[in-house]
Design brief:
The protein is built from three helices and six strands; from the N terminus they run E-E-H-E-H-E-H-E-E. The protein is of the alpha+beta class. A three-stranded antiparallel β-sheet has the order 2-1-3. Strand 5 and strand 6 form a beta hairpin.
Length: 160
């Protein structure tokens, strides 16, 4: 009796990306992604599975997604201009023996930006370590889509 051939299910699903996904691809690209990860992305509405029924709708979805992306980039450009026009002036407390008693941290920068109606998350501020010295600094802020804004910062001393 001959054996029946077992057909392997393809472990990868063809999908269209609805936004840029780091490590996978950019908006509108067709990629084959492992089934489990594709299900995760489907639940988060970041991809659409390609099949016979929705293949015609994909072009329309690509156009809408590209339009949304362009709108987001315009908003981000406006935020970039706002940030680059600001000057953050901060003070650090310095004792008699040049001892520094406080520093400028990401939280200080975030609260300054929020006071100026700019909503930035703490992880977007690329400050390697807190500022503990007097001077002029430029702090890069990742605002999305590979764009960075530079916040001018002036740190002055405050005698105790």
């Amino acid at each position: 009796m001959p054996r029946k051939k077992k057909y392997k299910k393809d472990k990868n699903l063809p999908v269209v990306l609805l936004e840029d996904i780091k490590g996978i691809g950019n908006l509108g690209e067709i990629k084959k992604i492992k089934r489990g990860f594709a299900i995760f992305l489907l639940r988060n509405r970041k991809v659409v599975v390609i099949n016979k029924n929705n293949f015609d709708k994909l072009e329309n979805m690509k156009l809408i997604a590209e339009k949304n992306r362009q709108e987001n980039i315009k908003k981000i450009e406006e935020i970039k201009q706002k940030i680059e026009n600001l000057i953050f002036e901060a003070y650090i407390k310095i004792g008699e023996n040049k001892e520094v008693y406080n520093s400028i941290t990401k939280n200080d920068i975030k609260s300054f930006l929020i006071n100026n109606n700019i909503d930035i998350k703490k992880y977007q501020i690329e400050l390697e370590k807190p500022i503990r010295e007097v001077g002029n600094f430029t702090i890069p802020i990742n605002i999305g889509y590979g764009l960075y804004a530079n916040l001018k910062t002036i740190v002055k001393e405050q005698k105790i």
